[in-house]
Amino acid sequence: MATIQLDDLPLWYHEQGSPTGDPVVLLHSAFVDSRMFDVALPHLDVHFRVLTFDRRAHGHTPDVGGPLSYELMARDTIAFLERVVNGPAHLVGHSDGANVALLVAMRRPDLVRKLVPISGNFHHEGLLPGVLEGFGEEDALRYLGTNYGAVSPDGEQHFPTVVDKVLRMAGTQPTLTEADLARITARTLVVAGDDDAMSLEHTVALYRAIPDAELAIVPRASHLLVVERPAEVYGLVNTFLTTAEPPPPTRQPIRRARQVSQPDRSASR
Question: What is the pTM of this model?
Answer without folding.
Answer: 0.94
